């Protein structure tokens, strides 16, 4: 069967021609994305996005379980509101080999939300942000942030302490919640710690690591303990978490269907799992927001997230605002400690690494996180 015949059969339309357009600036470290455009012999065209594991990164993908994104679309996506995530028409995923292939809705015309956060983040360096955001006049990073907090609250409330979520054993962290998976957890922690230790051995290169940050990361990595981790899990509520919640993994639709309540679409579900919901928000704050902008909006953003949680069904008596605030701060810091540990051995250039160091340092100083009160890294 030819590609044209296969596409015609699969899409249930008569395809005359097809072509791929490169989307090389999307897909992340281990994913490749291309736009598939098919023509039915009519003036109109139909397009999709094809996301696949990059050749040569299958081992990396298998180690981190990144093929779970395909499992998510096949098994859990139905539990999310319409428009919350892109439609996926075809999925193949293999957790053992790390391979995945997904034929997805093309969000052409939507805008990656990171572009609204200005040139501060390395994700936006060298981009014509005014042109990229022009189709959404009046939308600012504050507009985006309000919807981000509202949707995070709804998503986390939807799965709050929902025990049948633990049946999805392919989700990151499910085993840990029930006291299993120690070996894999330690392997993930040691990978980040060893990368950090190797950086100390070889030197910082062109990154200026402050004494305070070096001591903080060292203290956090030295606190890695499966037993202490289990104690924390038993005392904290858990839910479904995105795991890579930042503006570049979200799109802003410039036009809405009549039945849609929001413009935001969430992408990149490779890091999903079960854990601390507020941690997603903490990771978001540190990723793109300049310290100045973050300080201006952080408190109201946390309140917006918490209000959405409670409005969506979480019991405020058992999960207070103060606890939520603590989880945002410590979850964000400790997640980024693990991420920076991993990133030190990924060949990331000095300038972006300096940016992430400075982002985490500013957040740590603002919230008085020290080597004494920092927790262990969070996978």
TrEMBL record:
Cross-referenced Pfam families: DUF1679
The family database entries (SUPFAM superfamilies) matched by this protein are listed as:
Protein kinase-like (PK-like)
Give the CHK kinase-like domain ranges. Answer: 143-315
Gene3D superfamilies tied to this protein: 3.90.1200.10
* Domain of life of the native organism: Eukaryota
Ranges that cross the membrane: none
Annotated protein name in UniProt: CHK kinase-like domain-containing protein
Origin species? Arcella intermedia
